[in-house]
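User: Please predict the structure of the protein below. I'd like the answer in structure-token form so I can feed it into my own downstream comparison script.

Assistant: Understood. Taking the following sequence of 157 residues as input:
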Amino acid sequence: EIPESISLNEIKNTTSLEIAVSGNSKPYNAEQVQVIPEINTRSRVYLITAIIKDEENNLASGMSIQAFIPVSHKRDYLIIPTDAINKDSGGSFVYKIIPGDKDSFMVMPANVKILFLEGNSYFSESSSIKAGDQIVIEGNERLRPMAPVTILSESKK
């Protein structure tokens, strides 16, 4: 079942999907994807069908699955830990670490646009942050712009 908010045009040319099965860590590939262009008027969803190859016979009828449907072209995202995100009336932001006087550091807020959540990370876009920039992950809720900070440890993600 696909919500009607995902346009038929976005997935009509999809030929394969990655499938996750509850209770099974192995991803599956579904092929021969077909869209059934009829909206259920009560649930506001339409159906797609696909064939999942299961040579090891680990799947059973009625199992719960999740399909990962590509609705845009592949692109790079900023991956930001959920603990780094702050929110205010202006939206979501992180504190970016910038050089201060001599060998010191301070923070500046940098707006981020959260696109989606996966696990403990937000996939985001920002014109103020680029890959490799340092951001504050712990203690950020007590910071203010231009506050001095000390880097205790660095996480390479």
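That's the full token string. The mean pLDDT is 87.
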